[in-house]
Amino acid sequence: MLRDRDRARMEWQDHGITLLPLGTLFSAVRLPQRLVLAVAGGTGPSAQVDAVLADVLAGGPVICDPHGHRYYALVPAGMPVTWHQAVDDWRVMDVDCLGRDTYLGVPRLDLTSFDRRTYASYWSVPMPSMATLCAPLTVARLIAAGQHCLTEQATDEGPA
């Protein structure tokens, strides 16, 4: 039987992505693309959006899933437990904090830009080192800013 590390390396080589368990080394906050774009601007995954995320999240790692229209901010493993009340409040915006008993598709480390031909997952903000994760407070501020922008957009559009 292949060890987990060997399996991951083989999947990265063959498919460019592997499933890694969450909740031990890190967890992930799933952000809908519309919330990220409300803060970053643009109409979809792009180098501009990636740069804004890198700035807002102080270089913390983020995976973009263009096919699923989602971003995943990698956070400390304990965030789903320690931020449970905020996480419950965020679910109305389709934001969730994924931890134990969940797997995340993690792209190969060299996949760092959006490819319009494949719509494959990539590192919107590459992981600078294994020990570097997004600070929960910066992710919470991004979510609050996105919610504010979306509310203002809805108000500006007004009733039809």
Task: Describe this protein's structure.
With 160 residues, the chain is of the alpha+beta class. It has one domain. It is built from six helices and seven strands, in the order αββααββααβββα. The strands form two sheets. It has a five-stranded antiparallel β-sheet. A two-stranded antiparallel ribbon has the order 1-6. β3 and β4 form a beta hairpin. α2 crosses α6. The longest helix has 22 residues. The protein is globular, with a radius of gyration of 16 Å. 36% of the residues are buried.
Helix-strand layout with pairing:
Layout: H1 4-15, E1 17-21, E2 27-32, H2 33-40, H3 47-56, E3 62-65, E4 70-75, H4 79-82, H5 84-90, E5 96-98, E6 103-107, E7 122-125, H6 136-157
Antiparallel strand pairs: 1-6, 2-4, 2-5, 3-4, 3-7
Helix pairs in contact: 2-3, 2-6
Largest sheet: 5 strands, antiparallel
Going by helix content, strand content and strand pairing, the class is: alpha+beta
Spatial order of the strands forming the largest sheet: 5-2-4-3-7
Strand portion: 15-25%
Are there runs of 5+ residues with pLDDT below 50, and where?
A: none
What's the end-to-end separation, in Å? 59 Å
Overall mean confidence score, pLDDT: 91
- Specify the overall morphology: globular
Number of domains: 1
Helix amount, in percent? Answer: 25-40%
Rg over CA atoms, rounded to whole Å, is 16 Å
Short description:
The chain is 39% helix and 21% strand.
What would the keywords be for this entry?
5-stranded antiparallel β-sheet; alpha+beta; globular; two-stranded antiparallel sheet; 160 residues
